[in-house]
Amino acid sequence: MSKNLIALFLLFLSFNISAQEQEFKWPEGKQMALSLTWDDARPSQVQIGTDILNKYDTKATFYVLPGPVYDQLGGWKQAVKDGHEIGNHSYNHPCSGNFLWARKNALEEYSEEKMELEFEASNEKITQMLGVTPTQFAYPCGQTFIQRGTETKSYVPLVANKFKSGRTWLDEVPNDPAYCDLYQLTGVEMDGKSFEEILAIIDAARKDGLWLVLAGHEIDKGGLQTTKTKTLEKLLKYLSETDAIWVAPVGAITEYVRANRELE
């Protein structure tokens, strides 16, 4: 290899390493971003959760199903007035038929057309009831496939065509804003965790400048899928007292990420 080619190669390598080391810049000198999200429109979210969030002037993203919204319509209308974001979580909550309760709406039996109808029917009902049209989506059970075997397909492209982001579930890592697929945002479970456990996750994300999307279900109702009110109170107090973390709904951070990185 000639000296000129070697020099060109080294220059190229240096450029790539430099580009990889460039840090994504959060607004106002923030060191990371954090979104609080809950799924399913469980009654406890508006009976208990929104009052706690409002106490600390914190806005969350709620990925809802139309049926449970109707059952607590007054509470959900108030949540919208309070500035919380409403996302789409499908109409019938389709998951793998390995969940026996989901067998009537098994992803293994879904077509692309049927999934699109889920999106549209849910958005239509939510808009009718709450006066807002969701632009963010959360995959029921965090599963992103339809059909089975050699016919298996990802429905991430359908979400990408309909929404501005999609969030999964039970993930192990936060999102790298400079690299992540906005239609497969990772959702890290906060149900059942203590404040100290969540703080450890936050500290790790903060060190690397990441976007942590915490995901829950019930609020202070007991059982496995429950965000403890004691944990939530401590977490919100901590977040209200630090200037290092940008806390905002998924939609707001999605828009910022899209506008401030090179992948789009």
TrEMBL record:
The keyword Hydrolase applies. Pfam families: Polysacc_deac_1. Coiled coil: none annotated. Keywords: Hydrolase, Metal-binding, Signal. One of its GO terms (molecular function) is hydrolase activity, acting on carbon-nitrogen (but not peptide) bonds. Residues 32-248 form the NodB homology domain. One of its GO terms (biological process) is carbohydrate metabolic process. GO terms for cellular component: membrane. The keyword Oxidoreductase does not apply. InterPro entries: Glyco_hydro/deAcase_b/a-brl, NODB_dom, Polysacc_deacetylase_ArnD. Residues 1-19 form the signal peptide. PROSITE patterns: NODB (PS51677). This is Polysaccharide deacetylase.
